[in-house]
Amino acid sequence: MKILIGITTKNRAQILPKAIDSALSQDYQNKEVWVFDDASTDDTSLLQNQYPQVNWITSAESKGLMYARNLFMDQEGFELFCSLDDDAWFLKSDSLSKVIHFFENDSRIAAIGFDMLDKQNGLPSVIKQTVSLTNSYIGCGHVIHCSAARQVGFYTLAPGYYGSEEKDLCLRLIDSNYLILKYTGEYVWHDKTNIERDLQLQHRSGVCNDLVFAYRRTPILYLFPALFSKIIKQFLFAFTYKKNRLGGSTAKGVYDFFAWLLTKKTLRKAVSVKGFKKYQSYKNHGQIYMGSTFI
């Protein structure tokens, strides 16, 4: 199976080489590494000479992460797409080989997420590797089957630039009877650099997109309780983390959602009740994947 390792970047020339080197160092041979430069204004373009083996796509205007991911997944000749953030990198050279093995042996698998490490969650003293059933993945390091993503329509753009895109895609994949797995113990390091990252604006966007996700996909039977519950949880989260001053950005995110409802871009396409219930039950499911069965 041929895999495209895609990295989307914007104004992170200082840290981007670590992600590229990590991708190139993977021992899986049938791969290509692509970088989407989302209208960077720093020295990112100078890295093209340093990495001629990488396929560079440079956008004159900012298109956003979801645009880039959809572009990567829609390229001909690739069965799999590995999304790696520009501030993330593999810790081992055989991570892709291990994950691709599962795709090769089970056509039901749509996506596998890597285990994430960062400055707050360092490498554990004892590493136990398991592959288990889940309902979503963390976007900064995952592998997805391109044909499965194409079948459900790839990522759907939301009003905000960030938030809930993985949940939205995974819900639709689960509704189409695909599996989402997590590879615990197979790590990707996420540096979570604040370069080009406005935390208040990001949270505002995340709140809005989470409500949009619920509105678009929740079956009508559960829609209003789901929206009410999400709004309450968002404010509770904001008040729990007072030091980050998220109350204002939470309120603005809720406002953005209701403003979006008044537009003509609110077309609902809810999943089935069965798919919605599966998605909910898989959140903390934890069943260990054993090839064709779970334990």
In a few lines, what is going on in this structure?
By secondary structure, this protein is α/β, with parallel strands linked by helices. The chain folds into 2 domains: 3-190, Spore Coat Polysaccharide Biosynthesis Protein SpsA, Chain A (Alpha-Beta Complex), CATH 3.90.550.10; 199-261.
Secondary-structure arrangement, i.e. CATH architecture of the largest domain: Alpha-Beta Complex
Total domain modules: 2
Order of helices and strands: EHEHEHEEHEEEHHEHHHHEE
User: What is CATH's topology name of the largest domain?
Assistant: Spore Coat Polysaccharide Biosynthesis Protein SpsA, Chain A
* Average pLDDT number: 92
Point out poorly predicted stretches. Answer: none
Number of helices: 10
**First-last Cα distance:** 28 Å
Percentage beta strand: 15-25%
Protein name: Glycosyltransferase family 2 protein
InterPro entries: Glyco_trans_2-like, Glycosyltransf_2, Nucleotide-diphossugar_trans
Domain Glycosyltransferase 2-like: 5-113
EC number: 2.4.-.-
